[in-house]
Amino acid sequence: MGRGRAPCCEKVGLNRGAWTPEEDMRLIAYIRKFGHGNWRALPKQAGLLRCGKSCRLRWINYLRPDIKRGNFSIEEEETIIKLHGLLGNKWSKIASSLPGRTDNEIKNVWNTHLKKRLKSNEQSSSSSPTPTIVSTANPDQDTPSSSSSETTSISIPSNLDFDDFNDSIDEILAIDIEPEVWNDVIVTEEAEAGEKRNWLAYLEEELGLFDDNGAGDDDNKMVEMVVVGEGDPVTSYFHKSYSSPSPV
DNA sequence: AAGTGCTTCAACCGCGAGCAT
DNA sequence: AATGCTCGCGGTTGAAGCACT
């Protein structure tokens, strides 16, 4: 308090809401090349119409390479429950004990799954002689069972080789680009990379990502910007964003 | 098939902490 | 010591997807 909170950004003229694949690509590419010394200055330098806070959040929670995507294992859930019992809503502290997991993700898991489960367990334990606290209701998979989209990730075919695409990104990154001209480089050169077209065709065919009713160029561009490399943040993005292949 | 309600989770908001000046 | 600035955290929101009717 009394420390004069500066507005995180001028909100006018900045994008808000869901990140587009192109924005993700810009952010990833910029951070891979220049790092993120100053979040406030980053979006301008990277040519992003986002506030620094938004960039930071996107990177931390979603794009950084060491993010572990996918559902939480039983062990992870047990850890969360234990640590929450000790620490309360100290999500970042809890997250530090779960490598690859973010505070935001843990918070969501707690609020959507674990809290409810504990509650129902408490209720059932008061009426049942066998109180079992922690465990997912779905032992067949390492996901908490609940409704709908528990299985949000698809399994990428093992023969997919992301390295090719990653190489082209590396080539781009090897070019000494002034941040001011970053815009043009990303959008033109990279978008023209021929091998990406092959990737797209391959992915669409293999994964049935799109129905062919003319989803439009934008949708195609989505995938184009999304597939980067195994273990790469964008692959994680891919998992999330295209988790429910539409039946072809 | 369409409508409605529920669930999930990515993203936003506001605040406090901590560092620099 | 006071002030300004950035970063990180935790709470909350709302769009999208899903299940149910």
Automatic annotation (TrEMBL):
The keyword Metal-binding does not apply. Gene3D superfamilies: Homeodomain-like. Its main location: nucleus. The keyword DNA-binding applies. Coiled coil: none annotated. GO terms for molecular function: DNA binding. CDD domains: SANT (cd00167). One of its GO terms (cellular component) is nucleus. Residues 143-157 have a biased composition (Low complexity). It comes from the Eukaryota. Keywords: DNA-binding, Nucleus, Repeat, Transcription, Transcription regulation. Residues 133-142 have a biased composition (Polar residues). InterPro entries: Homeodomain-like_sf (IPR009057), Myb_dom (IPR017930), Myb_TF_plants (IPR015495), SANT/Myb (IPR001005). Signal peptide: none annotated. It holds the Pfam family Myb_DNA-binding. It is found in: Nucleus. PANTHER family: MYB FAMILY TRANSCRIPTION FACTOR (PTHR10641), TRANSCRIPTION FACTOR MYB72 (PTHR10641:SF1103). This is Uncharacterized protein. The lineage of its organism: Eukaryota, Viridiplantae, Streptophyta, Embryophyta, Tracheophyta.
